[in-house]
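User: Hi! I'm working on a homework problem where we have to compare a predicted structure to a textbook description. Could you give me the structure for the chain below?
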Amino acid sequence: MTLTRNKPLVLVLLLVFAIMSYLTIGGQSIGVCYGGNGDNLPSPSDVINLYKSNGIGSMRIYDPNPDTLQALRGSGIELILDVPNPHLESLAADASAAATWVQDNLVNYASDVSFRYIAVGNEVLPTSDSTAQYVDYVLPAMKNIQSAIRSAGLQDQIKVSTATYSGVVSNSYPPSHGSFDDGVSSFINPIINFLVENDSPLLANIYPYFSYTGDKQNIQLPYALFTAQGVQVQDENLQYQNLFDALLDALYAALEKASGANLRIVVSESGWPSEGDTDATVDNAKTYYTNLINHVKEGSTPRRPGQAIETYLFAMFDENQKGGLETEKHFGLFTPNQESKYQISFS
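Assistant: Happy to help. Predicted structure tokens:
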């Protein structure tokens, strides 16, 4: 009887719920990675204020810096927190070390810091000269961190994963052919099983820039920048107009072949440099970031229609102390003095 009398109110509430659900799925918030490889960067508290003033609702940091975690208190910014690769061995070998890590870096802040994912290792791959040494430690460290999070009662709030990248996929053209070769599958398949069992997503760094610059004979710049007109790749019944979707769906195809068909991917990094190479220009970077933001806010990939693409842009600032190619220093959306390089909207 009460439900009948209040039927108009019930309908309104249902409509509001439906709208909010649509906004959550279709209006995916944009995250930005916050790296610290610079000697001229703002203080963590200034950085948090910069995130908030630009409507950036999610952040990834690459180590549990206490000053950053303290500055995040009460901010409402959702966080990916990394376990750096050099720390994997100790956390894999000793469950008590993992419990201490969780207590010091999660439990002590969890009441007012919105932890979302723990990235246990970044771009560790058996075929990589720079990270192969960490392969044996990733899954045991994930298990120990997961156990400690469960013991702390935070397993529903914080999901444990690892961050991989497009290099994990072999034979990625067309995207439906994506697979893990024998040299990778023995490493990644048990991780996939862990993620499925714990209802955690796979984190993946997706960079059309590197795919394009590594194969300019076969990949056109507009395809990498989201500016290509019309269908560029016909893959069975799926059509691709941009390289970002193709790279992401190649990874989804590989997961489907490895008992991870229902696994969700979070794009934990994606960006375009503004200096350091012929195609690393301010105009190209602005085009890429603007179009990527619009794409993930409004769209989905052909292989996962209707599924939001949770995405973290790389990176908040140029990092003048970062090693590697010169381009690695110029992925910032902001200069160290907190000026926007591109005048783009994140919300």
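For your comparison, note the following. The first strand starts at residue 30 and ends at 34. Strands lie at 30-34, 58-61, 78-83, 114-122, 159-165, 202-205, 233-235, 238-240, 265-269, 311-313. Good luck with the assignment!
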